[in-house]
Design a protein that fits this description.
heterodimer; A: about 425 residues; six-stranded mixed β-sheet; four-stranded antiparallel β-sheet; B: about 325 residues; mainly alpha; about 55% helix; globular
């Protein structure tokens, strides 16, 4: 029934730990008096600019901050309450960032609708939609490509271990995703729309393909299970057998990729005029009750743990998946638009980093055909130019090399740092 | 004072494979165990003593070297144990312990530690040790003793390849080749590790199945030896023995599966591995047929080890999306 697709180069098969309950998306309990921290950076680009003041009453879905200069996105309130302060709030990567603190005064009631723009792209911008797969690239920019787009790929591969938020969404709201995909396809005048799902989510594939069979030009494909199957360039290669040249983006070869959660947000923005202020989050890891919750942006991790009967177990807390996520330094950090999962991991890290034994596994698993051990060695020797020549900027930071290294070397971590040096050097040269 | 909880913070990825260097080494040791046990059963208690002394000397030398250098002792990664085991497998069963001690010293200290330890050595340590012994003590290294459990007619003074070489040099033709396929299970004569070709093949397949090694080097190596010696054999039966004998006797299988695939000294990329294997095969046949030594696999591997950096440079994978290899 489903065509077999070729697998990406390299990649790994970690234990997938897909244990969370996907049959329902639970609502989380919000109490009066809860404090919500809403950062104005929940996307790639400049911080959004506040439009509310201290002491102002806001309702759920109301605009809190406008797009900043250049690349940016809007931020909406996720609760009804009083703005206690507009200053700085914690952020899971950047430390303290501009944001506001809202105290909840009312938990019932409808959300504030957006007006809706003339085009889909304007509506998306108004709703503050960003890529929900994890990167947080503003979606309205992606919907204004320079080239003609022939293919839209809806990414539901969700290849990271533990994470199941997209799975839950596809299973519970398949109609939203099909309809949202059609909206995007019509807007971009694309000839094909492909929903890509990894083979381990058969229930989603069946549901989505039943629904999509009514429409023309929309297909569901089942992909082999492998990490990082959902990485943009790898996904395009698997499905379309096209290679995105180094230094280019998928739009340059006429392809746009959207995450299923983003597509769902687009659908809700268009049909219910709902701004993006909440998302499905997988609460999982070494906990008793792995499950999927709809969590409003800005909710603190400590509140989430206590309301979902997943108490903090003194382990590592991670936003996102175990392969690319960031570990938290405090439980006061709020969930933002790009947070797909909150994991608690108790795995002990290696005691000691051992010397490289030249096994070549890092290069074998590298999806971009790099040689991580050489990049690492060059970084240590401070040979940035050599690293640029060896393609360090092509690294997609999937973490496979660090995962597989038998000597426990910090390859992906070092390469990430090396990319910063390479960027700096390339800027200086220009 | 309020107790403060410290969070565990690190960069992604937060999960890692449980296959450590130590585990890889243990898997290789495990895959060699059947051959080791059979050789001990066949050659008797002294061979066990030889195995143990090689391993103990290797570990001891590595530990002492680390201590003298004032760095963390690296013996816990089991690579010295593996080197000792492999070295012992290339030795004749009756070798005196003092010779094994010298071999272990050259294998670990000269073959590995002076270059900076694991992963830095250009030549396979166990083979380095063996070859230095072979060149320094040729008489000791080629005196194959008689098995202690005597199945009366299985007495053999030399290896098949050795016999062929002797015949050739004395008479100009190869007269007797007593080889049949029973020798696949227990071959008569040879070094400790050459006792059972079948068990070596099974051990190698186990490593390939476990993905410790890839099939490229052993396949290319063995196939090349088979085809090349087969061609030579077809043209002139008086020059060499049959290709089956070439593949199943001598150190070829031990070398192809366990030494040519040594991570530190073999190429990392698949194309490089294939070229490495082919040239190992060509050199092995060349030495066996035209060289002065009856056995050539060890020398072939050591010679090709020297080309590893070149092969790695030449067969570097193409960066995905790049126009040509090695550039972004």
């Amino acid at each position: 029934m489903f065509k077999k697709y070729k697998s990406l180069r390299g990649g790994i098969h970690p234990l997938d730990h897909k244990e969370a309950d996907v049959s329902i998306i639970r609502d989380i309990e919000i109490n009066k008096g809860d404090e919500f921290f809403i950062p104005f950076i929940q996307h790639i680009g400049s911080p959004s600019v506040a439009v509310v003041r201290d002491g102002e009453e806001v309702i759920k879905g109301q605009l809190l901050a406008e797009c900043g200069a250049g690349l940016g996105s809007r931020i909406h309130s996720s609760v009804t309450g009083i703005v206690k302060s507009v200053s700085t709030v914690p952020h899971y990567i950047f430390g303290n960032v501009p944001g506001c603190v809202i105290e909840v005064t009312e938990t019932e009631g409808e959300f504030c609708r957006i007006k809706g723009g003339a085009t889909l792209s304007e509506t998306v911008k108004e709703a503050g939609i960003v890529g929900l797969g994890g990167a947080g690239f503003p979606t309205h920019i992606k919907l204004s490509p320079k080239n003609h787009i022939d293919t839209i790929i809806i990414n539901g591969s969700e290849c990271e271990p533990y994470l199941m938020c997209d799975h839950a969404l596809m299973l519970n709201k398949p109609k939203n995703i099909i309809q949202g995909a059609l909206l995007l396809k019509d807007f971009l005048k694309a000839s094909a729309c492909i929903i890509a799902v990894e083979n381990n989510k058969k229930d989603c594939i069946i549901k989505l393909s039943e629904l999509s069979s009514k429409y023309n030009g929309i297909d569901v494909v089942s992909l082999p299970v492998k990490y990082p199957q959902g990485s943009e360039k790898q996904l395009i290669y698997s499905i379309l057998s096209k290679t995105v040249p180094s230094g280019s983006i998928p739009a340059d070869i006429g392809v746009v990729i959207q995450n299923v959660a983003t597509v769902n947000a687009v659908y809700e923005a268009v049909n219910f005029s709902k701004p993006l202020y909440e998302r499905v989050v997988t609460i999982s890891g070494d906990t008793q009750n792995p499950s999927n919750y709809k969590i409003p942006n800005g909710m603190k991790v400590s509140d989430i743990f206590s309301r979902t009967s997943n108490p903090y177990n003194n382990g590592k807390v991670i936003f996102g998946g175990p392969m690319t996520g960031s570990s938290l330094s405090s439980l006061d950090i709020p969930v933002i638009k790009t947070t797909g999962g909150i994991l608690q991991l108790n795995q002990k890290s290696r005691e000691q980093i051992q010397p490289c034994i030249r096994c070549g596994k890092c290069s074998e698993v590298c999806v971009m055909g790099l040689v991580p051990r050489e990049l690492e060695a060059s970084f240590i020797k401070n040979e940035t130019e050599k690293n640029i020549k060896n393609g360090i900027m092509s690294c997609v930071e999937c973490g496979c090399c660090s995962y597989i290294c038998p000597s426990g070397r910090l390859l992906a971590e070092t390469i990430k740092a090396g990319k910063k040096y390479a960027q700096k050097l390339m800027k200086e040269k220009k | 004072m309020e107790e403060r909880h410290l969070f565990s913070v690190s960069f992604a990825p937060h999960i890692k494979t449980d296959r450590s260097t130590e585990k890889i080494m243990k898997l290789v040791i495990l895959s060699l165990m059947p051959s080791v046990i059979v050789s001990i059963l066949y050659y008797g208690v002294y061979s066990l003593f030889l195995y143990l002394s090689c391993i103990i000397f290797c570990v001891l030398f590595e530990h002492l070297f680390c201590k003298i250098q004032g760095r963390y002792s690296s013996i816990r990664d089991y690579s010295a144990v593996l080197t000792g085991l492999l070295l012992a497998m290339t030795l004749p069963p009756s070798l005196p312990v003092w010779t094994a001690c010298i071999g272990s010293f050259f294998a670990i200290v000269i073959g590995k530690m002076v270059f900076g330890g694991i992963g830095q050595n250009p030549f396979n340590p166990a083979l380095t040790g063996r070859m230095i012994l072979l060149i320094s003590f040729p008489a000791l290294m080629t005196s194959w003793n008689v098995p202690s459990f005597l199945p009366a007619d299985a007495v053999s003074g030399a290896t098949v390849l050795g016999n062929a070489k002797t015949d050739l040099s004395l008479n100009g033709v190869i007269s007797h080749i007593d080889f049949d396929f029973m020798n696949l299970l227990i071959s008569n004569g040879g070094s400790l590790g050459e006792i059972s070709p079948l068990l070596l093949i099974l051990g190698g397949l186990f490593l390939i199945y476990k993905r410790v090694i890839s099939y490229h080097i052993p396949l290319a190596f063995i196939l090349t030896v088979f085809l090349l010696s087969g061609v030579i054999y077809l043209f002139d039966k008086n020059v060499t023995v049959s290709p089956f004998v070439h593949v199943l006797s001598g150190g070829l299988l031990l070398g192809a599966f366990f030494m040519a695939t040594d991570y530190s000294t073999s190429p990392m990329f698949n194309m490089g591995k294939i070229v490495f294997g082919i040239f190992c095969g060509v050199l092995t046949v060349a030495i066996r047929v035209y060289g002065g030594y009856p056995e050539g696999a060890g020398f072939a591997i050591l010679i090709m080890n020297a080309f590893t950096p070149l092969l790695d440079k030449f067969f570097k994978p193409k960066v995905f999306g790049a126009k040509y290899a090695g550039n972004s």
